[in-house]
Amino acid sequence: MATSSRPFSIERMPGFSLLALTCFFALYMPLAPLVVYSFNAGDNIALWEGLSLRWYVAAWENDLVQSAAIRSVVVAVIASVVATSLATMVALGTTRTRPYRGQTSIYAMVNQPLMVPEIVTAVALLIFFALIKESTGYHGYAYLISAHTAFCIPFAYLPIRARLEGMDRVLETAAADLYATPWRSFTRVTLPLLLPGILAGAMLAFVISLDDVVITEFVKSAGQDTLPTYMLGQLRRTITPEINAISTVLLGVSVVMVTIIFFLSRKKA
Amino acid sequence: MSAEQDSSTESFESLEAHAYQLEVRRNLLLSTPALIVLFCAASGPLLIMLVFSFLTPGDYGGIKWQFSTEAWFQVAFYRDIFDETVSIADAHLSIFWRSVKLSFLTTLVAFVLGFPTAYFIATRSPETRNLWLFLVTIPFWTNLLIRTFAILEIIRNQGLVNNVLIALGVIDQPLDMLYTDIAILLGMTYVYIPLMILPIYASMERFDFQLVEAAYDLYATRWRVLVRVIVPLVKPGVIAGSILVFVPSLGAYVTPRVLGGGKHLMIGNLIELQFGQGRNWPLGAALSLSLLVIVMVALIFYVRSAQKEGGAHGH
Amino acid sequence: MKLMFKAVLSSLMLVFSGIAIAAGELNLYNWGNYTSPELIEKFEKETGIKVTITDYDSNETALAKVRAGGHGFDLAVPSHSHLPIWISEGLIANPRVDQMSNFKNVAEEWRNPDWDPGRQYSAPWQWGSVGVMVDTSVYDGDINTFGIILDPPEELIGKINVAPEMNDVISSALLYLGGEACSGDKELLKKARDKLVEAKPKWKSMDYGVIEKFAGRDLAASLYWNGAAFRARLKNPDVRYGYPKEGYSLWADAVVLLKDARNVEEAKTFMNFIMTPENAGLMSAFARYANSIVGSEKYMPEDMATAPEVVVPQEFIGAGKFYPTCSPEVQKIYAAIWTELLK
Fold this sequence. Notes:
heterotrimer; B: mainly alpha; two-stranded antiparallel sheet; C: D-Maltodextrin-Binding Protein, domain 2; 17% strand
């Protein structure tokens, strides 16, 4: 270590930071053309014809695309919150426990939505939900939200489970020894320890729901287009930079939100 | 005296059994709500597909209520449309093999990039960790299709990557990346990498660096510390991450179609074809159920063996 | 916090409000980016009926959804090839389009199409063709043939795109080989397969996004629809659209009234509405395809009313034909050829 001028740090892994920063760079690089083309004067997403705010104006005036964008976000928020709560419960019920009958089946069932291509679930849901729609006459959002919740569950479950597996029971046992009720020990000990897993799971569930296209296409009722299905419909015709404009606005919103959360949490800390 | 002892061990055993029963009941209770949602909006409706796979295709999509095992036959065997000879369905096999190969490579690249990234995030100060984590997911607030088109824009001949490489003098001819397997691999890695980073991060956060310190005290090299101490401890995260990348990329649909130029089918496209223009729903159902069984068996096997291997770190 | 709550609540209400059940509403199920917003605005203003548009991306998706039931749509816009299926499966009602007041504006040749004899079921929307687009600065030979794609001249090899549409691609190969689309002749189908397998290595891609690639000169030829060829020419003046002399297929989309529609009167009002020259002109001006209404050219942009991609030149009219969707037996062979081609 004599050659190294830096003090020896046990956390440092040579090259890791470089790889990580490369990875972040790669994640953001494709956003550059995406944002740039949102200011395109032409009507194409890959052919630059000069600077203009035309597509922001178009998106602003287009109720269809606006409500589709808001609808996407709202559905994703509800589905990811519900899916993450349910996934946390299953993770607690299937991890760090003595083996019991049915454990493998639960594991298999929770992960099943990952394993069939979306189109298959989509067609199955189309037929199943159509029966319910016809017999009840209800055409609301419950179908879309429950479908999204279901396929989000494994995406939330796996990170939470991974976190839980790495936690030992020492602290919880200690809490129990100090006469904490199970609920108290859960909210005061288990939950805070589990939080990074829950946060990771919730984020994954959110972006997965936000991006879903095939299942939404088959489950949506009249007037329930989300941004991805709105865009899918354009695939065979022209995709205009209007979508880039909306995506850029969504990016902006997410950046603002993250910044606010960051400063709020700093104030607390 | 001895009788008393007997009864006390007995009651201890029954107490133990009772505690176990309580634990199982608690576990089942905790799992029930999710299972209900999954049954109503995922696995349950899939039973429809099981039924469909044993029916006859409808003339214009859909099905006819007529029992047939033809679809299952077609999964593995190919009846020549012209001379009726039967052979192994090599088209299906090669499509399946391509998909497995690409998904495996995607998982590998995602791990090689994702692990250091997760490590990087986990070793930031506690206040900034969540910020870094958000930074991983922010690009995914945009639409999948538009993101894929952005990648296309970057790797095409006149695109960003080639222009930069040429300007730097690394290459003098643009690399022909568009519409190749490399393009699909890049695109799929891009789409799925958060699914690798986040679970690894989740199991790595609050990693106990005393263990690493202990290893260094024993004169372990950095590489050995990484392979022998850190990786085994975050194994649950690595398992979760590789499942979340590998399995969905097997059925990937949009990325291969846009970046691969659509000249080759992947499993996802093959199955989609049956429900779309192919008008053969039973075959689509049988293909997807075959896929489901193969992946499910492989998954359970993988998780079990991975856990056994890391048996020292039991729970 | 309170403000944020309010914002969330109001956006929730915006999203979840208005599922059309009440009178004065209309649910249109149409291809994405195909419905002119101005047309809808005009309709809403004139009639007071509120229109909700929902998108689909393929005939198969639309058929599957409508067949499953419980969809809540009133009108849909299937292609001519699928229309007879919709009729025979009892998915659509008969609103007697031929007796509507604006039917008089429908051009003579569109009053009695094969796929809807007597035109009782469907109001015309837009139509086009499947041909080849070529960058004539790269290749200046005869472009009115599918040979451009299937036996490409040297200059075009490696610069060809083919729209990833199973039916269009295989039917074009059959036409090129002297047959008819959806032909059941197995010898010919076999030849078509061999021809496609032989031609595929000479293609660059099978993709939808072509306009920007013609503009950037990444592509020099493509099997594609006429409307896109028109838009590509506006970006790259060397692009021409070829009408293959071996025969090419035409397509037409038409508005139909669904059997389980809940807003029948509003739907009929809409069908009648789109058959006036002005409204049909608006429709075409947006989507850039031709319509079937006499006198609508007056309401289209100048460049469109004379475009050879939109107005089929006299000498090529004869080769174009509307083909019905293939029989189930032929469709099975199509799917097998397609899988073989793309494995």
